[in-house]
Amino acid sequence: MACVLLLGRLVPYSYRLRGTSICLLSLLLSYLCYCALFPDSAMVPSSVNPTHSCQRADGAKRRLQKSLSCALDARTTGEDQIAPSSLNTARNSTPSLPMSHLKFGNKKLPKAIIVGVKKGGTRAVLEFIRIHPDVRAAGTETHFFDRNYDRGLEWYRSLMPRTLESQITMEKTPSYFVTKETPRRISSMSHDTKLIVVVRDPVTRAISDYTQTLSKTPDLPSFQQLAFKNQSLGIVDMSWNAIRIGLYALHLENWLRYFPLAQIHFVSGERLITDPAGELARVQDFLGLKRIVTDKHFYFNRTKGFPCLKKPESSGSPRCLGKSKGRTHVQIDPEAIEQLRDFYRPYNIKFYEMVGHDFKWE
Ligand SMILES: Nc1ncnc2c1ncn2[C@@H]1O[C@H](COP(=O)(O)OS(=O)(=O)O)[C@@H](OP(=O)(O)O)[C@H]1O
Fold first, then answer.
1. Known binder of ligand: residue 325?
2. Quick one: which H or E segment has residue 307?
3. What would you report as the CA-atom Rg of the chain, rounded to the nearest whole angstrom?
4. Of the candidates 225, 215, 220, 189, which has an alpha carbon nearest to the alpha carbon of residue 326?
5. What share of the chain has pLDDT > 90, as a percent?
6. What one-character DSSP code corresponds to residue 236?
7. Tens digit of pLDDT for each residue in 39-84?
8. CA dihedral of 237, 239, 241, 246, whole degrees rounded to 10
9. Is this complex's ipTM strictly greater than 0.95?
């Protein structure tokens, strides 16, 4: 603009038009050069950018001169291609690692597994712990150690989410706790695997289990028919899965052949409902995590009758567990319930002694 005004004063009109065109053309050329050379270096954060000094050159002329050498520097190092978020990591890592690894981590075998028990509250524990930024979990039950073991560890690993070095990989498959081969198989994957068992009053658990099966198989025999070999004599059918799963002491004996007790954490399924933050504090301690999941993450949903998450991992809205969690249970004859309590009592006492905690299932 200054160039045009100056020309207006000094040069006769016939030359002005030509002069203005040349002036505008040279300005346009300068601008194009500037655009071509300068903006690449501006995408990289200044703290780690080798062309940092280039951006701070004073005045357009110096900036233009410097941008040429800066652009050359950037081309030789290749760093102008690196996304700002990964630049710091890239500099401290092995050059052969792919960029996807630097950004999202890689798939690792789980460091901690929720191994049981079915209908204990395993989904709630997984959904609650995975809001911790240092935890990532497989969404579905893998059943690797009980049903899919022949597929191999690489198959298992492929089911895991990508994690950064600081993050723990987790999965949950509740049937592991009652599968004979599972403790040995997990131990042979890694003897350091941390194990979480969510336990619940075995009588309520059995009724919950039955309620679930009935919802899928409406012509199922009655609970009493399945639970007792002879109800009037009080003989319980221990071969029925819904009963067998609740014999926690027997299953735990099998795990203790392969893992020390200190490596197994027991979550109370009852307290998980009345005090989710308290139970989650203990889970975080057990996993060696900072206590980030606290009572501010939960609210009690009166319609559902259960605690729900205020803000889950994947979205910004509150969320309760699905309809299959927290069902209304089938009504069972109180006498049958009393008989089952008598049946489980010695096993429960044994279990309390083994783990050093009284869960008060009476
Ligand atoms: N916050 C919250 N919301 C809903 N449900 C909760 C919650 N906390 C614990 N529970 C209890 O979890 C029970 C289901 O246990 P699991 O998730 O282990 O079931 S499963 O084995 O995966 O099918 C489920 O059992 P039922 O009540 O019998 O349906 C619940 O009692």
1. yes
2. strand 306-309
3. 33
4. 215
5. 68
6. E
7. 333 222 223 232 333 333 333 333 333 332 322 222 222 222 222 2
8. 70
9. yes
Q: For the segment 261-280, what is each residue's pLDDT rounded down to a tens digit?
A: 999 999 999 999 999 999 99
pLDDT digits (tens, 9 = 90+) for 130-151: 999 999 999 899 999 999 999 9
* Domain spanning 106-355, CATH architecture: 3-Layer(aba) Sandwich (3.40)
136 is annotated as contributing to ligand binding: no
The DSSP secondary structure of 117-145, one letter per residue, reads: -TTSSHHHHHHHHTTSTTEEE-SS---TT
Q: What are phi and psi of 194, to 5 degrees?
A: -90, 140
DSSP letter, residue 240:
S
Probe residue for ligand 1, chosen from 113, 114, 119 as the CB with the greatest number of ligand atoms within 8 Å: 119
Q: Which of 128, 130, 212, 325 to mutate to test the pocket of ligand 1 (most atoms within 8 A of CB)?
A: 325
* Beta carbons within 8 Å of 250's beta carbon, 6+ residues apart: 347
In Å, what is the CA distance from 320 to each residue of 161, 309, 311?
23, 6, 10
